[in-house]
């Protein structure tokens, strides 16, 4: 049976590693150490880093199944944009001196892009819907889970029925079995989520619940959710920049508290009384 060519760049490198000539193996090991360099370096620069010839680089990328070095570099660049953080690692030789400034500039750019596409009435309608819901569900996976937990923790101050899923020790089905058309579900769809995140978003829509999608996955626009809030997460380093996602979660929470009215203020007062009674803070 003919073996299938691995899809990702890193998988291709690992697949051919045992069969490489020693010089090509040295190049492969250099690439595996810092795969992100492929996205920004020329063939000559990669050859210099690995101390091999340009011809070795050409043979290497052909063995990987790419027609040219440029094709391989484009593949790495695309996978780094949408996939593993490993492909956003480099040797650091192209880094600017002011690392903090670079990250700050990228965070500002992401916030500008996110808020520039955000309609204020969208946040208001979501905040009011949260108050009318029988139960509010918040779901996130991997990087999305702590962000969903943060948003859930904040709105719990004024909303009595909030669930963040998946809950520890439960299957997702056990957590959301009671999802209904009277509910609002907020699903964080971020890059490299497990496939179940998409399945959950579809299930929430199918249940008849009002669904808000917050994330950086372009295909989430295809889901017929009521709210689609797109966040820019472009990064200047190996990790995606989730500053704008946190900012949106904070905005939703703040607006939810602001429109909570007498019932929200009463709940906050009851919580403060309980803090005093338990001497918890």
Verbal overview:
The protein is 53% helix and 9% strand. It is built from 13 helices and 5 strands. It has a 5-stranded parallel sheet, with helices on both faces. β1 (136-139), α9 and β2 form a beta-alpha-beta unit. α7 (99-116) crosses α12 (243-258). The radius of gyration is 24 Å and the shape is elongated. The N and C termini lie far apart (65 Å).
Poorly predicted parts: none
Number of strands: 5
Largest sheet: 5 strands, parallel
CATH class of the largest domain: Alpha Beta
Short description:
The chain is an alpha/beta fold. It has two domains: 9-88, Winged helix-like DNA-binding domain superfamily/Winged helix DNA-binding domain (Arc Repressor Mutant, subunit A, Orthogonal Bundle); 101-278, 3-Layer(aba) Sandwich (Rossmann fold), CATH 3.40.50. It is built from 13 helices and five strands.
List the helices and strands and how they pair.
Layout: H1 9-16, H2 22-33, H3 37-40, H4 43-50, H5 54-63, H6 69-82, H7 99-116, H8 120-132, E1 136-139, H9 144-155, E2 162-165, H10 172-176, E3 184-189, H11 195-206, E4 210-215, E5 227-230, H12 243-258, H13 261-278
Parallel strand pairs: 1-2, 1-3, 3-4, 4-5
Task: Write a concise keyword list for the protein shown above.
single chain; 281 residues; alpha/beta; Arc Repressor Mutant, subunit A; Rossmann fold; 2 domains; 13 helices
């Amino acid at each position: 049976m003919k073996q299938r060519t691995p899809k990702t760049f890193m998988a291709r490198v690992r697949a051919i590693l045992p069969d490489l000539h020693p010089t090509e193996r040295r190049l492969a090991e250099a690439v595996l150490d810092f795969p992100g360099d492929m996205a920004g370096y020329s063939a000559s620069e990669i050859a210099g880093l690995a101390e091999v010839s340009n011809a070795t680089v050409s043979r290497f990328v052909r063995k990987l199944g790419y027609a040219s070095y440029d094709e391989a570099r484009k593949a790495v660049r695309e996978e780094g944009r949408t996939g593993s953080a490993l492909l956003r690692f480099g040797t650091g030789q192209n880094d600017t001196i002011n690392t903090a400034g670079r990250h700050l500039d990228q965070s500002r750019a992401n916030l500008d892009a996110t808020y520039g596409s955000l309609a204020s009435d969208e946040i208001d309608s979501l905040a009011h819907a949260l108050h009318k819901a029988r139960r509010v569900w918040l779901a996130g996976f991997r990087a999305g889970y702590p962000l969903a937990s943060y948003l859930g923790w904040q709105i719990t101050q004024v909303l009595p029925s909030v669930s963040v899923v998946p809950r520890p020790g439960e299957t997702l089905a056990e957590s959301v079995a009671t999802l209904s058309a009277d509910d609002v579900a907020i699903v964080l769809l971020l890059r490299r989520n497990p496939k179940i995140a998409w399945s959950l978003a579809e299930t929430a829509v199918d249940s008849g619940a009002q669904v808000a999608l917050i994330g950086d996955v372009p295909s989430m626009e295809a889901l017929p959710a009521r709210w689609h809030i797109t966040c820019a997460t472009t990064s200047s380093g190996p990790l995606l920049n989730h500053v704008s996602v946190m900012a949106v979660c904070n905005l939703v929470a703040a607006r939810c508290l602001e429109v909570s009215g007498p019932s929200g203020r009463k709940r906050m007062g009851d919580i403060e009384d309980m803090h005093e009674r338990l001497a918890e803070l």
